[in-house]
């Protein structure tokens, strides 16, 4: 018998890619590849203003680029979290309709065309262009106030399932939550890193973290990517704490739902978070509560704790972030001249597929040939 005539031995293999791709919903299948182009365009636009000291103009050009790209997509999109209310923002305001209006996809959108405007303006690491989409009502329609939050990765979620009496709690002392995280990672508390915004309102929280022995990473702006980094091994970040923008919190929740992490949050008025006087708090309530009540947020429920299922209830969520300046997970934009650029992004969808993408835009391959990194 010839060698070729022998019965072939079939070696089975796991069909991971095929299985995950089959799980992708219509939004992920149709819009996620294009969503990458949207954040890339916004990041490149912002990168030309990097280090020029004008955060408002850097934000403006990224908003304009993101809006132009969004309006090329065949969808019926509504901005749920954007640049502000209609009277506060000329573009990508809350309630603005974007997309061509063609096709069957109806999506809610959360955008931050330039997360870390100060970072970009001053050339400091951590600025990104970021957005998420989901089916209608798939993202929390949060008001433009703060959210106090705690973010941890999937290792902690796994530990909680095995130890149902030990759970991360937004109202628990920091030491209690760090003890759970330390057990989940099988590390000592003094080996853990907690990221928190460097704000006066966090003075007591920072002191509390340090008293546990944990290490504190103070950042000036942009705690969205550090939150996502808690779900990625090797990032060196184990927890994110503190009050920041509600829009950034919802974007973080969208990614963390896909990555299997945990996030708890609570809406809080800026005057309350920043320790304002009773008179200042009452003034802000009078200004903002009527608007909040139209969203179903009242003085009775504003203190409710929101988990990932409330912040990102969608079943077909997609997320994309592109680095503007170098950061924890993403490289910054590299400009080659004449509009050519190299950008680094992370994209993901509810199927569970996560991609780190290194994209190069070159007009003339003869003048600017591709090179190995």
Oligomeric state of the chains present here: single chain
User: How many individual domains?
Assistant: 2
Beta content: 15-25%
Q: Residue ranges: pLDDT <50 for 5 or more in a row? A: none
CATH topology of the largest domain: Fructose-1,6-Bisphosphatase, Chain A, domain 1
The secondary-structure element order is HHHEEEHEEHHEHEHEHEHHHEEEE
Which term fits the overall shape?
A: globular
- Based on the structure given, which CATH architecture of the largest domain is correct? 2-Layer Sandwich
Taking Cα atoms only, what radius of gyration do you get, to the nearest Å?
A: 22 Å
User: What is the CATH top level name of the largest domain?
Assistant: Alpha Beta
Distance between the termini: 51 Å
Structural class: alpha+beta
The number of helical runs is 12
Percent of residues in helices? 25-40%
Q: How many DSSP-defined strands?
A: 13
Largest sheet: 8 strands, mixed
Mean of all residue-level pLDDT scores = 93
Organism: Methanolobus vulcani
Family: Belongs to the FBPase class 2 family.
GO molecular function, one term: metal ion binding
InterPro entries: FBPase_class-2/SBPase (IPR004464)
